[in-house]
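Example record used in the benchmark description.
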Amino acid sequence: MQILIESQYLSPWKVYSEFINADTICIEQCENYQKQTYRNRCYIAGANGILPLIVPVQHGNSKYIKDIKIEYAQRWQQVHLRGIKSCYGKAPFFEYHYSKFEEIYMTKTPFLIDLNQKFMTLCLEILKLKKKITHSKLYELRVFEKNIQDIRNKYLPDTHFPALIPKIDGIYYQPHVQSFASNLSVLDLIFNEGTNAMNIMYNNEQN
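Model output (structure tokens):
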């Protein structure tokens, strides 16, 4: 089975549970770029609550996602790394994985879609999900092939914004928050649960 999904920046971890039964992940590269989505933002959480991490982009003539360039005039990489350290510096699996993400951050990848894929590839590797990644050849509003599961725009900040719920209802343990923060970036699951992340995703995929 193939999953068709838009390019996302450090996706909500529930997106990765969608990948479990897929053979191939196809990244939509022919769509128009959409603001205020997970294409250039993610959410993490620490002792002070939910924190957005937003990648600034340049506004050129092309609107295609594959042509969207990252703006490096702002020192956003350092801001994101500080935020990650603040939220997860004491998490159980932080020391195992932080340097891998830092290496990608400190390389100035020109295009947003390429940066997103670098992080996706790393997260798949950490989660031990062996998947082939491809890219769309043209934009189709609807996909009718039975072997393709289209989840483009299934996860949006408007409908899947991280919400604080009673900790007793949490899906996994978040050590530094008063209430469980749902729908966070896959970073939250990786740093807090590490080797147990796959079990959590599998259980979520079954529900």
